[in-house]
Amino acid sequence: MRPRDDDAEDGTGEAGGFRGAGGAGGAGEYGDAGGPEGPGGFGGPGPGDGQPRIPLPRASVEDSGQPLPDVVPVVLEHHVLTSLLGAWALAACSAEEASAVEEHIGDCAACADEAVRLREAVTLLQRPESLDLDPALRTRVLDGCLERRPPRIPVPEWAAPYDAETARLDALLQDIGDAEWHAPVRLRWFEADGPASRRTTVAGVLAHLLTVDGAVAVGLGLADPMGEITAAGRGPAARTEAYWRASHYPPTRLVRAPWREQSHGIVRTVSFTGDEGGMPVSYGDFELPLRDAMLDRAFECWVHAEDIAEAVDYPYEPPAARHLNRMIDLAARMLPGALAARRRAGLAAPGGPHLVTAGEPGRSLRLEIEGSGGGEWLIPLDAPGAVGSAEHEVAHVALDGVEFCRLAAGHVPPADAAAGQLGDREAIRDVLFAAASLSRM
Amino acid sequence: MAKRDVKRDVPMRWDRKMQQRLARGEAAALGELYDRFASLVHGLAHRVLDDERAADRITRDVFAHVWEHPDAYDPRQGPLRTWVATLTHRFAVQRLRATETAALARGGPGTAEELELKVRHASVAARADYIVQSMPAPLRAALELAYFQRRDYRQTAADLGVTEDEARRRLRLGLQLLSTARDAPTAPEAPKAPPGYGGAA
């Protein structure tokens, strides 16, 4: 169970947007039977606001010279007594007021009825149960619905991981307290074969997701979350830095609503694109087809949700196996391009003895991913367009799916990745470094 | 011309739009519906049934019902949230009654009267939860301070930055709203909208 230290949270989340839109109960409760209540509603000897509340004893008692009783009932007007009924029922008034109310309801049937009713109502007050909804319940419920009535406009299969990951992150965000939004987070990635990092906060991480998801939103014709903010470049890092800089104050929990609205808008809009997600989406310095961009955003959402969960000390599970499998597949498909880029930059060993033309089988590395969501991929080593081939396998790497994703996120240095290795050591090193180079801020 | 109540129009527009999207079979709309109401539905079902898996099942049934019968919701009768809460309440109470009746038939402990009492308690408790969640935020905040944080009404007034008169008024009004949770009958043929879910919440 997640800790819950924020009782002020109303627990209704987004649904809370309805509050204030009228009463919950039957009509008429707003009518106040106690009559108009102006300032200075205390009658009798009660002093004004801010004064000590102990009333002066009544003259007759004083005159008698007898000891004063501990609690002297104050003399209050009927409408004041009525207005006190709620506070009295909650034991939230002074002892003097309480005894005045009690004395009064001995004589006044209407107030006695209400007093009983309100006392009973108090017993209905219960602490909201801080039950965490099982994130897997969402998929089960939605799948059950869609089986009973197949959708005319389904969410594309390639958008399902993004839909699920954004919902999981949102459930985490619903449970964290105001202060936790400012918990420090260190974003980590791999750059030029070395670790890189950037300090921000939980809210800052969500602003990062908002701005980079924004690239997909813009590609779909939705509003750019950057608004009027201009960035030095169109890449993810430049957009994020510009967004952070544009505000005088660090981001707060207020960033949650626009992020969620945008992610819902993206899922909704991709349901209508209808071209198998082939539309190119520009990230500024690179491009992905929409279906891959959606996998990439799902992956980033999970990785940063883990950053957030770690910062606020909440548990967070890896994605569902079939979604994890799609994310690993995307990384595996991007590896040949990343290898080529490293080779061009002189960071990786030159291609093999025989150059391979596109579409031909070439030297390959078998990437075996264990655990849920795993599988096997043959990574062509010599050219991005070459075809992975079991006959030309020169190396075999085996590692756990989550570990591979942490490597591809730049959270585990390639040298430390817990990988079983067999075969061409140089090829293995190149592929592990290429995997890490897929990461970015 | 009277000023339009923007606060109220926005959710009503969202409700109507959601209904249209569900009706035309948009799976993304179902996801959004779940994201907005799942914790409400699960919470109410759990309050009635006091069982995690049973609450999961009610959650599944409620969303399946809304997805299969989006036209059953009439926006003129009130907000979508109220309709969803009413469905949840009805399904959960039906289920509680069914499981308790089955247990009784198998020779379990208790009497038919005790069963009715238990159903009624669970039903009232769930309705009370909903009323607290749906009442205007200032009333809920006052109750929260006075009841859970044990502040007296003067401290409550200071905490909320309102007059003491206003604090007393909010506490009384909040409890008056809450007391309507007991007003609904819990007969097997539950009415369409028990008082606790009615109104303009």
From TrEMBL, chain A:
Gene3D superfamilies: Anti-sigma factor, zinc-finger domain (1.10.10.1320), dinb family like domain (1.20.120.450). Keywords: Transcription, Transcription regulation. Residues 1-12 have a biased composition (Acidic residues). Residues 13-49 have a biased composition (Gly residues). InterPro entries: Anti_sigma_zinc_sf, DinB/YfiT-like, MDMPI_metal-binding. Residues 1-65 are annotated as: Disordered. It holds the Pfam family MDMPI_N. GO terms for molecular function: metal ion binding. This is MDMPI N domain containing protein.
TrEMBL record, chain B:
One of its GO terms (biological process) is DNA-templated transcription initiation. GO terms for molecular function: DNA binding; sigma factor activity. This is RNA polymerase subunit sigma-70. The keyword Aminoacyl-tRNA synthetase does not apply. Residues 180-201 are annotated as: Disordered. Belongs to the sigma-70 factor family. ECF subfamily. Residues 33-98 form the RNA polymerase sigma-70 region domain. The lineage of its organism: Bacteria, Bacillati, Actinomycetota, Actinomycetes, Kitasatosporales. Transmembrane segments: none annotated. PANTHER family: RNA POLYMERASE ECF-TYPE SIGMA FACTO, RNA POLYMERASE SIGMA FACTOR SIGZ. The keyword Transcription regulation applies. Residues 131-177 form the RNA polymerase sigma factor 70 region 4 type domain. Residues 180-190 have a biased composition (Low complexity). Pfam families: Sigma70_r2 (PF04542), Sigma70_r4_2 (PF08281). Keywords: Sigma factor, Transcription, Transcription regulation.
